[in-house]
Model the fold of this input.
Amino acid sequence: MLVTENPGHKPTVLDPETRLQLAQLAFGELRDTEVRLDEHPYTVDLLRDEKFEDAVFVLGADQWAVFDTWKEPDEILRLIPVAVAARPGQPVPAADIDVFEIEQLPIASSEVRDRIKRGDSIDDLVPPPVAGEIEQRGLYGRAPS
Done:
């Protein structure tokens, strides 16, 4: 898993090391984990610099819908196989990609952050180790325990 310091597509709230730690807590042991601190956080630049043998670039259908606005999208498709995670019934424009369906979760990351700011429980929204770490460290505006 790679974590970019400053992704080009959206602002981040937490530092990359903390985001990586939360991902590791959410998904358990991950192999080949590192924090990618890159001053040019575009996917195409990363793919040019690194060799990702036997890898697939996975993104959500929401990002695939705006993929043509990314830096050099055709080059990304040339450099690595792409798979798009789509919710059931969500249309994905045809292209030379793999599409797979994922279960639609009835939550959004903004809801998690909003609950934290209000001091409400997030135990039903995130894995227990993630909720514990957020509470212990006082992340997203929650007072540390």
Notes: The chain has six helices and five strands. Residues 77 and 95 are 10 Å apart (CA to CA). The chain has a mean pLDDT of 81.
